[in-house]
Amino acid sequence: MATKSVNIHSRESRVKHRSASRASTTGVGVWGRHLLLLAGSLLMIFPFLWTILSSLKDISQIFVIPPQWIPNPVVWSNYPASLQAMPFVQAYGNSFYITALVVLSTLFTASMAAYAFAKIRFPGRDVLFILFLSTMMIPKQVTMIPLYLVMNKVGWLDTHWSLIVPGALFNAFAVFLLRQFVMGIPRDLEEAAVVDGAGHVRIYWSVILPLIRPALAAVGIFTFLGAWNSFLDPLIYLNTPEKFTVPLLLNSFKGLYTADWALMMAGTTISVIPVLVVYIFAQKQIIEGITMTGIKG
């Protein structure tokens, strides 16, 4: 009996020791991951912090060596000066209404295409979807010249339609994301709607759309960020300063030989505010939409 109790006590001691060492190893691993994530976060946020700090300096402080991190003195006048130097209010209005139209149009067209590819059986559906999805693999540089020629033929050069229509009609990623979500909706709901006499339009509007709100929110946010930050397309299609968007207007601070970096940094900081607001208040929708899409698809 004494031997058995000694063996039991020894086994319990070994189990406790292994549990303690495992907990210690797990704790070290968790701290290591947190430190790694913190270092990556600081690396990612550094350019943004540098932009904000540079927006509060004069031009002599920006390029001083060694770098002067804290502005001294703080030049708050860079912000009103940047707004007065360029037609920022008009550019903001252009960016807002272009982005709003692109987002709304994309949600409408992509959700309809997603419903068709996921729920409607027609000849060549899967092949057509693969071909449509393969457009994501084509570099944008390949399609720039053909799209420019198309815009020229229809008379949309130097108009905002050249930025709205292509962005609203050709978003393969949005269609893919929404299709994966729609495929996870039980077919029983559609069959019940059909029994009640609903057609495809009624099913799409009354059954599908209410159930894919998280995915629609994620797609809308991604589309907003892409349209608001777009620089290359406005640079190619727009020539009139009154029609410039915010990213394109910021480029106007660069001259042929010089650039007013202080005012550019102030304008850049102002232009980032809508993006930050959308991201801060919509983090939950982004994560929920992508997570639920992955699970349901």
TrEMBL record:
Q: Is-annotated flag, keyword Metal-binding?
A: no
Q: Name one Pfam family in it.
A: BPD_transp_1
Give the CDD domains listed for this entry: TM_PBP2
Membrane disposition? Multi-pass membrane protein
List membrane-spanning regions. Answer: 35-53, 96-118, 127-149, 161-182, 203-228, 261-282
Principal place where this protein is found?
A: membrane
Give the family this protein belongs to, as stated in its UniProt record.
Answer: Belongs to the binding-protein-dependent transport system permease family.
Query: Which protein are we looking at?
Result: Carbohydrate ABC transporter permease
User: What organism does this protein naturally occur in?
Assistant: Paenibacillus medicaginis
